[in-house]
Amino acid sequence: MDRQLSDDMLADDNPGSVEAAVAAMLACQQDNGSLIASPDFAEYHYCWLRDSSFAAYALDRCGEHEASASYHHWVDRAIRGIGSQIETATEHRMAGLAVDSAALPPARFNLDGSVAADDWPNFQIDGYGTWLWALREHLARAGRGGLPPELHQSVRRAGGYIAAFALDPCYDVWEENGGGVHTSTLACVYGGLTAAAELLDEPGLLRRAREVQSHVRMTAAAAGRLCKSTVNSEVDASMIWLATPFALVDDRDPLFEAAVREISEQLTLDGGIRRFASDTFFGGGAWPVLTASLGWHQAVTGDRDGALRGLAWIAGRIDAQGRLGEQFGGDRRQPEAYREWVGRWGHPARELLWSHAMYAVLSTELGAAGTDPTDSKDDPTFLRR
After folding, report:
1. Rounded to an integer, what distance in angstroms lies between the CA atom of residue 381 and that of residue 327?
2. Fewer beta carbons under 10 A from the terminal one: N or C of the chain?
3. Does residue 221 contact residue 234 with C-beta atoms inside 8 Å?
4. Nearest-CA neighbor of 338 among 350, 348, 330?
């Protein structure tokens, strides 16, 4: 892909510009700092720690540090609201006592920071790990030094919680299969534990991160490959996060490289990337989030052309209103499954916070690679130079 095409896609007057993605993310932010997952899809009128923490990271990359800070302080308040629940669950797990999964901290919150009273599968620890990682990135990118004292307690609670439950079965990042230990969840946990260890200067959390890392390596070595989870031998596109951004594995690790090849070969749909081979959610279409994740990894490892193809695919899915949905192509891939989900929830989200966030991350990564490396990634004008 030539440089002119790259420049055209990254220009600020393009509907797929970083500025447009930032505006879409900011439109999802509430006055209290929370970030709604999708403003036009009723099932997603919540704030997920996972989705929103990636979005906060994207905002930091684009120089929107105040918006990111507002989100992180919202998370702090939400965690304070369930502080005793987190501490009790952690203490019981560390003591070897049985813990009812229904009593565990939630993966998503109402926009006011309260816990949603429903039967959604909330026992997912990846979001807490992703938040800790994004918080460390925010403090570094915003030049705010160490951990502010007012956030110390929430970071300690979240770090202790994911350390205690790191290798326990839970729901995966897609909120499915609650009976397995999921590889991409472990990537998020590793990223969170290493971040919390640094923020708190806590060697015990770093030791736990190394245990998680060893578990992933030993499990993969025993199987001869990286798998989606302990109960599913497929690859999952979210496994890309093992290297980019969470650095649990080296990006040149042979088993990881083999997994990335499988993802590219098995999960590509019309140029975008699907979640996993057996996916039937809205027909199992291709997700901008995952297409951007692969592109981000390609950009980091020097495959600029591959990353640009992913960026172009995502840009081509932005509609005339500037909306970027959750997934595309499932209606053609598995029409019956698509219709089943439409009957249950309506049409899939046409505007998704996380999609815009990962598009912005990929765009800024490519923009940074195409400019003077001394230019600041935190300057929102750097893509226009």
Report:
1. 29
2. C
3. no
4. 330
- Residue 273's SS3 state is strand
**Both tokens of residue 320?**
């005339």
Instruction: Give residue for tokens 């650095």.
Output: 247
Assess whether pLDDT exceeds 50 at residue 380: no
HSE-up (13 A, CA, CB side) for residue 245: 22
Do the strands 286-287 and 268-269 form a parallel or antiparallel pair, or are they unpaired?
A: unpaired
Structure tokens at 380: 């929102």
List, by residue number, the catalytic residues. 172, 175, 326
Distance (Å, whole) CA 185 – CA 250? 17
Among 42, 8, 16, which residue's Cα sits nearest to residue 291?
16
Question: What is the predicted pLDDT for the residue at 13?
Answer: 52
* CA–CA gap between residue 62 and residue 70 (Å, rounded): 15
Rg of the chain in Å (alpha carbons):
20
Question: How far is the C-alpha of 152 from the C-alpha of 22, rounded, in Å?
Answer: 29
- The 286-287 sheet, strands edge to edge: 268-269, 272-274, 286-287
Which H or E element spans position 47? strand 47-48
Reported pTM:
0.92
Q: Which domain holds residue 278?
A: 3-384
CATH of the domain at 349: 1.50.10.10
Which tokens in the block code for residue 285?
């279409």
What is the pairing mode between strands 108-109 and 272-274?
A: unpaired
Task: Quote the distance between the C-alpha of residue 81 and its chain's center.
Answer: 23
Locate all alpha helices (DSSP H) within 166-253, ordered by sequence.
Answer: 183-200, 203-223
| pLDDT tens, position by position, 334-368 | 999 999 999 999 999 999 999 999 999 999 999 96
| Whole-angstrom distance, CA of residue 331 vs CA of residue 333 | 6
